[in-house]
Amino acid sequence: MRDDVQFPFGQTMIHPETGALLKRGRRMETIEYMGLKKEFEATGFFPNDGGDGVIMGDDHDAFEKAFAEVKAQYAAQMRTLAKELRRKAKLTQKEASQLLTGSPNSFSKYERGEALPSWPTALLMKLIAQDPKLVEKIRNG
Known about the structure:
The chain is an alpha+beta fold. It has two domains: 12-72, Ubiquitin-like (UB roll) (Roll), CATH 3.10.20; 77-139, 434 Repressor (Amino-terminal Domain). The protein has five helices and three strands. The chain has helices at residues 60-89, 93-100, 106-112, 119-130, 134-139; strands at 12-14, 21-33, 36-46. It has a three-stranded antiparallel sheet, with helices on one face. A hairpin with a 2-residue loop joins strand 2 (21-33) and strand 3. Helix 1 packs across helix 3 and helix 1 crosses helix 4 (119-130). The N and C termini lie far apart (58 Å).
């Protein structure tokens, strides 16, 4: 807990929605993004019963850092998956892009980390990487 931060309510506050008494402290929180999870230590105002707390000001920094880390992990997984799928299915970037997304450059962007596939596209990519024969089923409608 940072002692140099001044909060308008001191070390306690009332939850604006539930009316619960919140005390300043730390607890472990979990952030989820696209099927990945990351635990981090959150500082804020929390009830004794483990319910919803309030995080404000600089306390958001831990959340932002954890979110950036899990998003980077997901992006790295998608870069690897895009390359693996194309290798196993013997597709060019353009072929994979047109077949799975309809966009001519999507796989190039996925492999460079400039874009992330949508959740349904990512699931389809995982299925094709596991069974490259699905490409023919997709092509043949």
